[in-house]
Amino acid sequence: MRIIVIGAVAAGTSAAAKARRNDENAQIVVYEKDRHISYSGCGMPYYISGEVEEAEELYPRDAGYFKKKYNVDIRTRHEVMAIHPKDKTLRVKNLNTGEEFTDHYDRLVIATGAYAVTPPIAGKDQPHVFTLRTVGDMLQIHDFIEAHKPKTAAIIGSGFIGLEMCESLRGLGLEVTLIEKLPQVIPALDPDMAVHVQKHLEEKGVKVFTGATATQITEKEVLLDEGSRMPADLVLVSTGVKPNVALAKEAGIALGETGAIHVDDAMRTSQPDIYACGDCIETPHILTGKPVWLPLGSTANKTGRIAGDAVTGGDLRFRGVMGTGIFRVFDLGVAQTGLSEREARGVGFDVAVSHASKLSRPGYMGGKELTIKAVADKVTGKLLGAQIVGYEGVDKRIDVFVTALTYGAMAEDLSHLDLAYAPPFSTTRDPVMYAGMILDGVISRGRPLMTAEELEERRKQGEKIQVIDAREKKSFEKRCVEGAVCIPQEELRQQCENLDKEAITLTYSNRGTTGNAAQNILIGKGFKRVYNLSGGEKQYHAVKRLKQ
Description:
Blueprint: E1 2-6, H1 10-22, E2 27-32, H2 44-49, H3 63-70, E3 73-76, E4 78-84, E5 89-94, E6 100-104, E7 107-110, E8 114-116, E9 129-130, H4 135-148, E10 152-156, H5 160-171, E11 175-180, H6 191-203, E12 207-210, E13 214-217, E14 221-224, E15 229-231, E16 234-237, E17 241-243, H7 246-250, E18 274-276, E19 283-284, E20 291-292, H8 297-310, E21 325-329, E22 332-338, H9 341-346, E23 351-359, E24 369-377, E25 383-390, H10 394-406, H11 431-444, E26 449-450, H12 452-460, E27 465-469, H13 473-478, E28 485-486, H14 489-495, E29 504-508, H15 513-524, E30 529-533, H16 536-547
Parallel strand pairs: 1-2, 1-7, 2-3, 7-18, 9-16, 10-11, 10-16, 11-12, 26-30, 27-28, 27-29, 29-30
Antiparallel strand pairs: 4-5, 5-6, 8-17, 13-14, 14-15, 19-20, 21-22, 22-25, 23-24, 24-25
């Protein structure tokens, strides 16, 4: 059997390696139009910053490695120009010589990945303007910095790569401006979590412009639609990627709802004996069953392995994605999994939302704050998603959420998890457990929350809300929620008789814990509609800051 793979990065090489492990006798050939194969795209910002010292650490395997280890022939600088499913042939061009030839396959795997997209900005083709998708892109940026010693940089787009490059370029001493056309950084996050990342960027010296569109790039500046001119000796356009499906489309292979290649759980396409994997395919979301396009290296490796198994008769099947992602921006970890609040509402869930800000481990052990936003179905109690921002332990907590979501956990299940505890690692009640306790209180125990956004919206609609600051007076005097009165928790039992029991009442504290205690007191005293401010005064002012 002759197996041909198109593409030799994460998915393609995984497919070829798995096919060889299953079938020692198959002929396996991989065509790759680039020079570099099997590289770590996610590591590229760290080479540019100098954290990764040698570029070769990101692409340690060459064609010779795969021939020696797997008896797989990888032919770099060879571009597949056309697929002919009817007669199972390919037209291939040797980019070194210009020669074109025909090859044939018994089974074909398409792993053509994705490509960087750039908006129609005047001046984007200048030599100091880059995208960062391939090793070639990385080396060009590195060489440009070494040769020209730029002092200023503008990054257009605030996805994962854009924010990681903020860190890399600031680390090299450049003044960095981040430009995002949407009202928030990191469009994948909910706005009330993105605010924490934007604040951190600004604290690290990054100038952030949201709701701004780059209209022109000159030799030394980026011009914005509102008239500002941002200094930029180097410009990175990081406005996203699209699936590379032109070859498949021309071959009559069906695309899915997202515009990526549609495959079944064995990576089969609509054409016989043609499979696809990696960033060029759409995959089902585990929670909704609906197709999504989420190009991630982890998914590429998994789908590549399954494609390699399937073309050799194996029974591995792909179970879908949860939408999990994590990145670092300076010393801050940012992670998400499952559905965001926006996504959950968009597919019809009646959601319960909580914000929990807790230490990753005890303060006496140097613990740092984590902010967790968790989302659940208010009707069934089923956990739907989580987003986390913090300085340590973000990866551990998001993986707990991923596992819980994968196995259909209820929100209350989080508080019953037997998580590892010792002071160097965690608190006795882990932040994940607190998130579950808060959500369970909302869903099942009559302890509703009100978010900062909901408070403002209800006030705009004319609702009268009685707001109680349950902190000490010195905290209240330093900063408080607009319209609040200060009644410290220890005085609330005596003073609550002066409050309107029938009014909508909102309690709050710094982060929510004391606010919940005050909520319990008022409910116990017969107050009918008592909410606790989700995430407390800290989350309220983070959201308010975004709107200013």
